[in-house]
Amino acid sequence: MKNVQISFDENLLNTLNNIAATSKLSRSAVVREALKEWIRQREIQVFENDWIRKLKENPGEIADSEAWMDAEHWGEI
User: Fold this and answer.
1) Which long-range contacts (CB under 8 A, 24 or more apart) does 52-60 make?
2) CA dihedral for 51, 53, 56, 62, sign (positive or negative)
3) Phi, psi for 17 (deg, rounded to 5)
4) Are the beta carbons of 30 and 41 closer than 8 angstroms?
5) Cα–Cα distance between 18 and 68 in angstroms, integer?
6) In this structure, how many other beta carbons lie within 10 angstroms of the beta carbon of residue 30?
7) How far apart (Å, rounded) are the C-alpha atoms in residues 41 and 77?
8) Number of DSSP helices (H) and strands (E) in the chain, helices first
9) What local confidence, expressed as pLDDT, does residue 51 receive?
């Protein structure tokens, strides 16, 4: 793993420290997990926005809609 330096305001750092202590994880582990979840949520949002855009552009194309619906049942990212 690579080390990076990031800055937090006092409130966020206190929250991070509390979560790390109660979870028995390092601060780095908590930040990694939070970032992974943020990335996952962002990917889902991009996917949904693309889906909505495509449906608006081609509302009559049922085959495309069915393919998008099938893609909705995805596993872990």
Assistant:
1) none
2) negative
3) -60, -40
4) no
5) 41
6) 18
7) 10
8) 3, 0
9) 84
Distances (CA, A) of 71 to 13, 29, 30, 35, 53: 38, 30, 30, 24, 16
Look at residues 24, 25, 32, 39 and name the one whose alpha carbon lies nearest to residue 6: 32
The DSSP line for 5-20 is -----HHHHHHHHHHH
- Check residue 60 and report its DSSP letter: T
- Give the three-state DSSP class for 73: coil
Write out residues in the chain with pLDDT < 50, as ranges: none
Q: What percentage of the chain carries pLDDT values higher than 90?
A: 61
Burial (Cβ within 10 Å: 0-12, 13-18, ≥19) of residue 1: exposed
